[in-house]
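Cross-check.
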Amino acid sequence: MTWLNQLDPTWQFLLFSALKVGVAVVALLTLVAYTVILERRLAACIQDRIGPNRVGPLGLLQPLADGVKSFLKEDFVPGHVRKIYFWLAPALIMIPALLTLAVIPFGSRLGSQPLVIADLNVGILYTFGIVSLGVYGIVLAGYAANSKYPFLGGIRSTAQMISYEIAMGLAVIPVFMLAGDLNLSRIIDYQSHGLFSWLAFKLPVSFVLFGITAFAETNRTPFDMPEAENELAGGYNVEYGSMKFAMFFMAEYANMIAVSAMIVTLFLGGWTLPWFGLDRPAANLWVGLLQVGIFLGKVAAWVSFMIWTRWMLPRFRYDQLMKLGWERLIPVALANIVGIAVWLWMKS
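Predicted model, tokenized:
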């Protein structure tokens, strides 16, 4: 490691940043593959089936088989589609999940290196700016297909995401009112003083609101109106096949992981545990790796909850979905902001 210490600090920063980006992307794609296995296993358990158990030990190589199958399928482009947009949409839909991970602190530090790619002072604002781009891939896919079912799915997605982004943004305002910072690392530091310093306990209304809107923003049941297989035959991705369809499929799970990481960071203490000194920056390599494991464990727990919800609840009717967003969640989120503001004023 002596040659690393001899490098110029700027080159050290660039080298470690590139390493963190590579590890984060590989980890995300691996988690996407095994989230699919987790979903299929949980669905099978709920429906009293076995689930994937043929490819590899316990079916653990099933994602590899699915990936090979997608690569080998014919990449057919229907003649009636708008071809440039048709090719652009699958790539565009994957980008927001990758960019969101840039500001998520997935650990405290390893040595002198903080385990976050970009420790921005406006991390929350950056995240919401990136998340709002996710709708463009779906809308573009619906427009590019030049077909009625994908178009309806794209329109539904636009209305749904715009509606629920408002409630999601309002749900987060009490977080930085209480923590006094937009930096995600410092929000985790604020929650590192015991279990009940986690914002899920201090701001339960914000936690519940953010959790509900997370389902809507990722198009997961009971908010999966843009796909709605029994109404729109799959919605915006009807005309896609091969790796293009796989990109939409992967993006859904990548977005689930990204939004779960945000929930863990904002409300569940991030990489901290209030026991055994795991709520402080790592003193050595093994503690640092353990804190990364804690963060990933919390993310896995929330992803499992999202999957369980899909197989236990029915889909909303579209008017019910919009009514919930505009007439229930937004007023409750506004009342929550006022209540927290009054409480902080009285406390001061």
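The chain has 14 helices and two strands. The first strand starts at residue 109 and ends at 110. Passed to J.P. for a second look.
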